[in-house]
Amino acid sequence: MLRLPEGMGRVWLMRARGMREVEIAEALGISRQAVNKALKDARVKLFEAFFGLTEVFSWDIVRVNAEKGFMVARGKCLDKNVRVYAFYFPGKGIRAFFEENLPDYVLEHAVELGITRKPDREELIKALES
Q1: What is the DSSP letter of 4?
Q2: Is the dihedral of CA 60, 62, 66, 71 positive or negative?
Q3: What is the distance of C-alpha 92 from the center of its chain?
Q4: Which pLDDT score, from 0 to 100, does residue 25 have?
Q5: Do 21 and 15 meet the contact criterion of CB atoms below 8 Å apart?
Q6: pLDDT at 43 over 80
Q7: Does residue 111 contact residue 123 with C-beta atoms inside 8 Å?
Q8: What is the pTM assigned to this prediction?
Q9: Measured between alpha carbons, how far is 73 from 81 in angstroms, rounded to an integer?
């Protein structure tokens, strides 16, 4: 599964946590232009990875947010229509979950990236679907 290169992943994670490009550049000792390029490349790679998953598993995309690293899709599992929630985890790649079967580490990841304010499944599902 796709993993962003270490430097690109670090820049992406800092931005996903809410840092501005100039702050990331200062923190890493690189130019703002390098940060901007890394973010553009990361978004492209994440979009391609999420779209690739939908092609492989014949899912229908509902929503993709490469800046926060998640996708919502519709799929079939044992002839039942299900929601699929996929997340990018730096250094680990993309992990997908069916329906509300989201483990605690996903809830904590969502809080860390500012997708939700607290580790609550219902709040996360609502945020992903809106």
Answers
A1: -
A2: negative
A3: 12
A4: 98
A5: yes
A6: yes
A7: no
A8: 0.92
A9: 11
**pLDDT averaged over the chain?**
94
Name the residue type at position 76.
K
Q: What one-character DSSP code corresponds to residue 52?
A: H
Place of tokens 């703002």: 32
For residue 70, the SS3 value is: strand
**Per-residue pLDDT tens over the stretch 55-86:** 999 999 999 999 999 999 999 878 889 999 99
Q: Annotate 10-48 with DSSP letters as a single string.
A: HHHHHHHTT--HHHHHHHHT--HHHHHHHHHHHHHHHHH
Q: How far apart are CA 121 and CA 105, in angstroms?
A: 11
Residue 124, pLDDT > 80, answer: yes
64 closest CA partner among 83, 46, 81: 46
Say yes or no to pLDDT of 1 above 60: no
Q: Residue written as tokens 């800046």? A: 67
Query: Cα separation of 86 and 110, whole Å?
Result: 12
Q: Which two tokens stand for residue 78?
A: 């044992």
- Per-residue confidence (pLDDT) for residue 79, from 0 to 100: 82
Q: Which residue has the tokens 């989201």?
A: 102
